[in-house]
Structure formats: structure tokens, C-alpha cells
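Table 4 source record.
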Amino acid sequence: MKRYWLIALVLLLCAGYGAGAPMDAEAYWKRGNENSGKDLSAAIADYTKAIELNPKFARAYHNRGLAHENSGDLNAALKDYTKAIELEPGDPSAYFLRGTIKARQKNDDSALVDFNKAAELGSLDADLFFDRGMVHSRKGNHKAAVADFGRAIKLNPDYAPAFNQRGFLRFHYFNEFEEALKDIDRAVELAPAQPMYHGNRGRCLAAMNRNDEALKAFDRAIELEPEYIWAYNSRGILRKEMGDFPAAEKDFSKAIELDKTNGYFYYNRGNMNVARNELKAALADFTKTVELVPEWGDGFFALAETREKLDDLPGALAAYDKAVALSPKDPINWNSRAKLKIETGDYKGALADCEQAIKLDPEFGRAYLNKSLALACLERYGEALAACEIYCRMEPDDQAAREFREQLQKGVEENRPMKKLQRFFSK
């Protein structure tokens, strides 16, 4: 955001200077302020001359920093804001502006230090709290972000971006759907031509299962911005959930057409293809996903599941290995690989995976069931029965598991050969 408004404030303090009189630092500063709205290069030159004449002119560093920022030279702006702070350490504006540069450069921790200092010095700038909220949100501190967006709104009740961002966080992270919708509706009221607000409104309504209204919101977002990629993606997800696969496919394909480098769009289309049992098409989509987002464990997990359904067990195992390596704290990855290892006869490997899944989530019932099966395949029937008992206590309505428990009990009593238990599991 170009911050000409800050210079406009200081222009109110400026008096005219004689055209023929020698110009001092103050005069160059004033002319720089006038040039800032029309010729940034001239403004920078004027501020530089003011600094040459008065090296301790904090306001000249401050405003030259703004001119550098608006011209795209962020490093020069950062240096000027730092010098302005050195000369006037009580100026909250310089801390705020330096923080915005650091935030744009993704130096979030340092940006927060500057934003906090500006707030401590008494800044009542709504943009300060909005920008700090955006950094908090990016760092995953969503509660603090919501609070900051609220402060921005209190200082500026017509601050549409703050309403939009607070609304998004409320529905996406806190399930505060009604309050979120009020916020986003207010953002739409303040800026009805902003497609992002309609897109977020659609996502909130979809989360509330108000699907018809959500579709209309996505339609409006796309009407306002025909190349609004995320609206196509979000509408595709909703249409997939509603069972309208042809329309969902069109939306996902349109998103991919607009951005062929986004692996998440292929992933969403892949899930849609799985839902309609087009497994080969899903395989192609998930393969593209992991090519584009090779560090994302969920992409490899989806690829593994699809390969498994297509009976490519070695390929599935390789993809599960990658999913486990990328997301080692996800118990589902370990359990799913264990299930496949049982199917391929690697019972010891399956047991190790189940134990790791249980370590990560002691309430993960399916991991106990797969552990029971792996132990049974290793003819360790007593331990298998114990693991199955735990699962049955967690899932008392699972009739198949109760029948398996009975088979295990017989296996313990009669030292039943594993073949019969395997036949039970093949059902």
C-alpha cells in the first residue's frame, strides 16, 4: 500500500518558501513532500539534499524511506527508517513503517518487535494493528491476530480488510461461523466490488452447510474477477461435496488452467476423481501433486492410497514411505503403511508401524486393530487378543472386530494355525 497519506499529514505543517531564496534543509524537505505524490525520484533527491544540509533531520529520513518504499526499494527504505529511529527513538511511525518492510521481507519476528514498539509508544494507527495481525496470522498465532484485527476495527470502524481477515480466521480456525459471517458481510457491505470478500463469504457459508448461498457467493466472486483462481477451487470443492462431479471437474480444471504450477488444485481434482471412482485419473492428478509439491506428505499419502486401490502395492509402499518421512508425526501415515505391510507379508514391519502410530496417538483404535492382526500373523495370539480387546473397548459396535476377537480366543485356546485367521481377515 502506498503510504502517501503519511506525507500528506506532514504537509499540513508546511509553509511556503520564496522561489528566489536559498533553500535550507526544511525547504528541501517541504518540496520533497510536494513531489512525493507525483515524482518519487525528485522527492528522493530533495530529501537527500535536506539530509546533506542537516544530517540529523529525522523527518527527512522518515519521508525518504516512504519514497523508497513506494518506489520499490525496500532495503533503502529499511535503512532510512532505521536512521529515523536512531535520531527520534520516540517516533512510533518509524517503528511501524520499518515493521511493514520487515513483514514484506518475511522477517516476521523482527517485524513484530517493531510493531510492538510502535504500539507501546502509543500509536493509534489502524494499519499498525492490521499489519501486526497479518504477521500473527502468518505465524499461526490466530488468537492474537483476531485481537489485532479487532483493534484495527475499533480505530477505524469502516476498515473492510480487517473485517474480512477477522471473519476468515473466525470460521476457519475457531468455528465461530455466525460471528465470522457478520464480519465478512460487513466487509462486503463496505467494499462490494472486492472479489476476495465474496470468496471468503462463500467459504464461510459452505462451512455452515448453506450450500446454495455459498454457490451464489462464489459465482459473484468469479463474476467480479473472472480469473479468481481460489474461487474456482473453492467452488469446485463445494460442488464435489454436493455430488456435482461434472461441475466440480470444470472448476478444478479452470483453476489448473489459470495456474498449472499449483499442486493443491491437482490434489483437489484427484480427490474428486476418487469420489467418482475414476482412479486412473486420480492417479494422474496425485502424481502431478507430488511433482509440484514434493515436500507435502498429504500428497504422497493420497498417491499411496490410490496406487493401493489400483493394486500397485510396491508403488503404494514407496509413496507411504515418503508420506511417513515427510509427516512422521501423523499416526495415520504409520497405520496405513502398517495395513499395507500386513497385506504384503511384512508382519514385523507392520507391527513396528502400528506401535509407532499408537505412540503418537494412544486413542487411535484402528492402529490397535492392525497391531492385533500383525501379531496374529506372527502367531503371537495372546498379544494379538490383548490388542484386539483394546480396540473392541474403543469401538464396541464393530461386529467384525468382535468376531475376530472370538477367533483369536480360539487361537489362544487351541493354538490355531494362522491360515484360518488369515481367511477370516480376507473377508
